[in-house]
Amino acid sequence: MPRVDCDIRDVKLAPEGKRRILWADRDMPVLAQIRERFAREKPLTGIRMSACLHVTAETANLMRTLQAGGAELVLCASNPLSTQDDVAASLVEDFGVRVYAIRGEDTDTYYRHIAAALEHAPMLTMDDGADLVSSLIFVAIGRLQDVHPRVREWAERTGKERCRQIIQGILGSMEETTTGVTRLRAMERDGVLQFPVIAVNDAQSKHFFDNRYGTGQSTIDGIIRATDILLAGKKIVVSGYGWCGKGVSLRARGMGATVIVTEVDPIRALEAAMDGFLVMPLLEAAKIGDLFITVTGNKHVLRREHFAVMKDGAILANSGHFDVEIDLPALREMTAEIVRQVHPHVDEYRLKDGRRLYLIGEGRLVNLAAAHGHPPSVMDMSFATQALSSEYCVKNRGRLTPRVHDVPREIEDTVARLKLASMGIQIDTLTEEQKRYLSAWEQGT
Ligand SMILES: NC(=O)c1ccc[n+]([C@@H]2O[C@H](COP(=O)([O-])OP(=O)(O)OC[C@H]3O[C@@H](n4cnc5c(N)ncnc54)[C@H](O)[C@@H]3O)[C@@H](O)[C@H]2O)c1
Question: Distance between alpha carbon 408 and the CA centroid of its chain, in Å?
Fold first, then answer.
């Protein structure tokens, strides 16, 4: 019997999960320092917290940190395919965290788990993609017909008055990824956001490093683990030259591939061209690419017209948040037969005209579906920012307005300084003369 209420694959997987959590912890020194301070100061005492995140070894170390600060935690998955079952088991068994997440869970189970996180009546929430908050907002504005049936059932069971109390009791919410922030800003624009949200993704201490170097390395890692292909000499098409796309392109070039970037934003396209990548419309790139990677946060980027001209044997992968970047319904319509798992994590789509296309990880985030996600060293910064933002919400309870807020600059600087120190890197400081010079206008030619 597991120690606490939960819904996980198998609690007996805990020893392997614990080994991996502690291994990741070795490379997360900033979070470890915050954990030590939290254990002394207990800034989250009495705070019920629900987190909807990828259940990985790095997330487990964030949970340990929040728990050390006194938070009462529930964790559910932010993607049906990203849960590491051994980590979930260890969180339950070794650390007493209530986890609701099973790798490969269907949509029904996914939302049943989100409902379990809502049932916790959180005072702080943490999201990766805004599925937890958007479920709550649908309930808050009475659009129960638009929310998943499992969440609707929870709202009906709980009753309007209790739901209202839960929503009013939320001190703040943290959002981890670009797509989540995009959704939250849309909620703010539509006037439906009911509580303050901290856009952790938009902090420089997060997206400069996590989105660029984390996604860059782990996306390539996932593709190699799934396919075993040699990247050198391949033509790799990267759609989207945002923070993630820059990292993926850089690492793919480093492995000897010819990288073609496709974009819709002229500045980003120009940046890609001047960074030395080929830039062209996706329809042209589709004819020559060996491997396609979408990282746009947008929908149906790779679609019918592109599949129609791709080479036999082309490989498709997505590293954007949701599985909508590759138009899978269109791909299925063009397909005579799908051979599942021709290689672990790879499905072969035999098209009606005889060509074969290979889809990795069912079009879900390839770095989490086929590999372990970002390396701990980079999640150290993202999750340090998350932990300090949680503390900030509690310290400022009642003072933050219900909109999307930036992470305070002091938190970003603290995370960067601690990370530099952990890497043994020292930097210079401004002299008094330099400070005066930078704040004056008098001195010119
Ligand atoms: N795999 C991961 O672990 C991971 C990590 C961080 C972020 N993400 C997700 O990756 C996605 C991208 O994040 P980001 O931080 O790079 O965002 P970003 O906003 O910095 O960049 C996205 C880029 O895609 C471009 N784009 C939009 N539609 C396009 C289209 N149809 N064709 C070509 N380009 C298009 C935009 O112009 C923009 O330059 C988001 O969904 C984000 O949530 C995934």
Answer: 21
